[in-house]
């Protein structure tokens, strides 16, 4: 998945599908990055339930590659308040509906939130609010594909793979670094 296309919806059978795993530090804990030689496939939280993503996390080998280096650098820029959007080659494995939901997440502007209902309507499925919540819960590319920007109908912070405190941190961080915030210098 990239900003202009949908994520892959079936497991890739290309020869570059061997996964490499790298752990990076962040203000909200260590994040585990998984990538093939050409695409980022997952960003996992400390204690994450690996069953929520359609990636064989256990098969990944420890190391790094260009994709992981770029991801780590862009995450550092994001947490420094210098990056609004990620520019990475993405390959998220999900159903057609999940992929549509994840593409919709990429349309939510930095520093803003939408409700699950608004996200469902934005992808042309206004009655699929619960399904949107389930799809967001399976988002393998946390932070990069910003499911943290989706909140309950009453504005409450609801389910998030990284935990509610991590979601609160990300939303507060983005609010403090939006382009219209005093002193902000985001890309």
3D architecture notes:
The protein has a domain at 96-177: Orthogonal Bundle (Arc Repressor Mutant, subunit A). 29% of the residues lie in helices and 11% in strands. Helix 2 (96-105) packs across helix 4 (129-137) and helix 3 (116-122) packs across helix 4. It has helices spanning 66-79, 96-105, 116-122, 129-137, 164-177, and strands spanning 20-24, 31-35, 40-44, 61-62, 114-115, 150-151. It contains five helices and six strands; from the N terminus they run E-E-E-E-H-H-E-H-H-E-H. A hairpin with a 4-residue loop joins strand 2 and strand 3. The chain is of the alpha/beta class and 187 residues long. 33% of the residues are buried.
What would the keywords be for this entry?
globular, 11% strand, four-stranded mixed beta sheet, disordered N terminus, 5 helices, alpha/beta, Arc Repressor Mutant, subunit A, disordered C terminus, 187 residues
Regions with pLDDT < 50 over 5+ consecutive residues?
1-15, 182-187
Distance between the amino and carboxyl termini: 21 Å
What string, H for helix and E for strand, traces the elements in order?
Answer: EEEEHHEHHEH
Q: Structural class of the secondary structure composition?
A: alpha/beta
Task: Provide the CATH superfamily of the domain at 96-177.
Answer: Winged helix-like DNA-binding domain superfamily/Winged helix DNA-binding domain
* CATH fold group of the domain at 96-177: Arc Repressor Mutant, subunit A
Number of strands: 6
Q: Major sheet: size, sense and barrel closure? A: 4 strands, mixed
Mean pLDDT: 87
Task: State which percent range the strand residues make up.
Answer: 5-15%
Name given to the CATH architecture of the domain at 96-177: Orthogonal Bundle
Q: Can you tell me the overall shape?
A: globular
Number of helical segments with 4 or more residues = 5
Give the helix level as a range of percent: 25-40%
What value does the Rg take, in angstroms?
16 Å
CATH domain class of the domain at 96-177: Mainly Alpha
- Biggest sheet strand line-up: 3-2-1-4
């Amino acid at each position: 998945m990239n900003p202009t296309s949908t994520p892959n919806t079936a497991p890739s059978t290309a020869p570059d599908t061997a996964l490499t795993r790298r752990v990076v530090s962040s203000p909200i804990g260590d994040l585990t990055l998984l990538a093939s030689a050409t695409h980022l496939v997952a960003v996992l939280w400390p204690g994450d339930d690996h069953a929520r993503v359609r990636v064989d996390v256990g098969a990944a080998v420890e190391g790094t590659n260009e994709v992981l280096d770029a991801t780590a650098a862009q995450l550092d820029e994001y947490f420094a308040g210098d990056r609004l959007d990620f520019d990475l080659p993405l390959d998220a494995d999900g159903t057609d509906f999940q992929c549509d939901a994840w593409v919709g997440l990429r349309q939510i502007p930095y520093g803003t939130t939408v409700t699950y209902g608004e996200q469902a309507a934005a992808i042309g499925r206004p009655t699929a609010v619960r399904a949107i919540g389930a799809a967001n819960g399976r988002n393998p590319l946390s932070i990069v594909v910003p499911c943290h920007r989706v909140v309950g109908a009453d504005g409450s912070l609801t389910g998030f793979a990284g935990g509610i405190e991590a979601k609160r941190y990300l939303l507060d961080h983005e609010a403090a670094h939006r382009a219209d915030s005093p002193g902000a210098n985001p890309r």
